Amino acid sequence: MLILIIGILVLFLDQLTKQAIRANLVYGDSIPVIDGFFNLVYVRNDGAAWNLLAGHGIILILISFSVMVALYFFRDKIIEGRKRNELLMGLLMGGIAGNLIDRIRFGWVTDFLDFEFGAYHYPSFNVADSAICIVFVIYLIMSFFDKKKQEEAEDA
Fold first, then answer.
1. Predicted pLDDT of residue 36
2. pLDDT of residue 14
3. Which of 58, 71, 50, 73 lies closest to 139 in space, CA to CA?
């Protein structure tokens, strides 16, 4: 149940924020929020992260749909009875669904969060992308700690 609640919240927030951007900004607009660091923009990304597979929307739709189906069918194995894994699964499913809806509706994903770090300009992203990235960061961190616990148990 937690997966569904988190997934729907992420999906709702993602679609709400993207709709607000499309309704209030003209494509290509940029509004500085914190000058030289953070802007709200309206860009369209027809690729995946960092514009990978740009112009191959049907492939991205198929990949997204396939990943969601696989996650659904293997959810018990992935969750392993852990609440944190349910949270991560909800974030991941909501993020994938948010971008999948855009790809099906428009043929591209609305991105609007834009950060600059000195001379480096990070590629724009959205709430769905954030949820997906949070999952991978937490998963990597937890994998490290899980491995460390396993090594300690073996040494004991």
1. 94
2. 98
3. 71
By CB neighbour count within 10 A (0-12 exposed, 13-18 middle, 19+ buried), where does 92 fall? buried
Tokens matching residue 31? 């509004």
**53, 59 contact by CB (below 8 A):** yes
| pTM for the full predicted model | 0.89
Active-site annotation, residues: 111, 129
Q: Rounded to whole angstroms, what are the CA distances from 111 to 17, 48, 70, 96, 118?
A: 10, 11, 26, 14, 21
Which residues lie across from 39 on neighbouring strands?
Answer: 32, 114
CA distance 110 to 22: 8
Q: What is the tens place of the pLDDT at every residue in 73-92?
A: 999 998 888 888 999 999 99
What are residue 30's phi and psi, to 5 degrees?
-140, 125
Nearest to 14 by CA among 92, 131, 141: 131
How far lies 150's CA from each of 143, 147, 155, 156, in Å?
A: 10, 5, 9, 10
